[in-house]
Amino acid sequence: MEEGRCKFWLPKKNRFCSNRRLSDSLFCGNHNPKSEEQRVTCPLDPSHSVLQENLESHLRRCPFLKQLQSLKQQPFYKKGINGGRDDDVDDVKVNSKDAENFTFSNKELPLPSDDITSNMKRNAVYNMTVPEFSQLMRKIESIHSSISSEIHELYNIPEVCGIWINKGIDRKLPFQEKHVLQQASILGNLADFGILENPVGNIVCPNIAEPLYSNGSSGDKVPAVVEFGAGRGYLTQILADCYGIKKVFLVERKSYKLKADRSLRQTENLTLERLRIDIEDLNLDAVESLRGVPYLAIGKHLCGPATDLTLRCCLPKQSQEDKATHSTCSRYLRGLAIATCCHHLCQWKHYINKRYFLNLGIRKDDFHAITWFTSWAVDADHGSDLSNSLDHGLHPLSIVKKYCGVGAQGVEEIVKNMEAMDRAVLGLMCKEIIDMGRIMWLKEQGLATKLTKYVPSNISPENHLLIAKNRYCL
Fold first, then answer.
1. H helix or E strand, kind and range, residue 275
2. Which of 126, 165, 329, 350 has the highest CB neighbour number within 10 Å of its CB?
3. What's the pLDDT band for 211 if we cut at 50, 70, 90?
4. What are the residues facing 77 on neighbouring strands?
5. Any idea what the Cα angle at residue 98 is, between residues 105 and 80, rounded to 5°?
6. Considering only CA atoms, which of 212, 204, 274, 219 is closest in space to residue 244?
7. What is the pTM of this model?
8. Given CA atoms 381, 384, 386, 388 in this order, what sign does their dihedral have?
9. What burial class does residue 100 get, using C-beta atoms within 10 Å of its C-beta: 0-12 exposed, 13-18 middle, 19+ buried?
10. Angle 109-114-117 (CA atoms, 0-180°, nearest 5)?
């Protein structure tokens, strides 16, 4: 029987593949080398691929098909509503000269409709000339030096979160200390910024005369929390346990085991809806049970472009007339706290504030190079806090002096010769620049904002928190 099995070795399982091999090959259809070039990503679910010749029949029986058909019937589904566009010059509001340069100069990169992979970003960087690379390093230093004073640090664990920190919770719930510390500090930063009050406190919006967080008395509109990229929902769980929220929406495209849903549903007077949908396709206005309800938008960690998709979802484009009447209150968005991560996955077409980069002389190719550099920030040894590394003289200008002098053979050689700390500091700078653009966009929407490092990097190197609140609901 073993003779008819696929000869592809699976190192993680320490055995050969158990599928039957093809009649003309030593391998099954999944592992046959001749099939690799013929395989295409399933357009319904990018997590798997199929042979090109079988694509049509696969689309009729793909397990994701039924879920997609059901999702399309939901009123809150609108394909790509929060995605942005690669050439969205209207949103960017650049001048005609900028518009002419609104292209990716590297010929190896694909059409604007395709995502730019990390390999493509790396190859684009390696194809730069040394002067081009040096110029980009100088731009990064100049931009970062102009924004560094706007980046704060606050590691704040509220006393009310002691029931989690001291593990005084239901032991049936998964507990990882590093995640609890991050979740608690997110709540502490929200409280410090005036978005959260004590569990029995109120924050009143004078324009609407309704509380942001009520004490549960009858007649009050029930406040809500929308957690984007919710995963198992434990950020919302700790918020519910410590601050007594009453209405919860968990937005997540994947299915998870060990979710907090069961525990949340057992909480008295709390209602829960889980929306299994990609943030890119979520029309929050069409969620019937959220209409007219004050809500707080939260997320930890929102990978790469998911942060930009969330910002668009919460604050869609408005007409000048709407802005003049403060219509950001139309859906009662009171505050927002998003812990960002995986900046190396960011895409120009999704990024929320292209104008920010264009006005700084950063075009799409440079943007994707900057996103690629960010991966170096989490490659470093974070056994000790690196938050002070930026003050130790390790700047991109130092990189230029150190590595880009006479005799440099090319960018690839420069990158490979860079010391780990230099790479890490450059990555940290690039992450801060990307997140500052997001903060500036939120400020342009009329919100009070703050970019803070909410935990030391030895707890998590992905420690940036975007915080914003409605200025008219203080």
1. strand 271-275
2. 350
3. very low
4. 282
5. 75
6. 212
7. 0.80
8. negative
9. exposed
10. 60
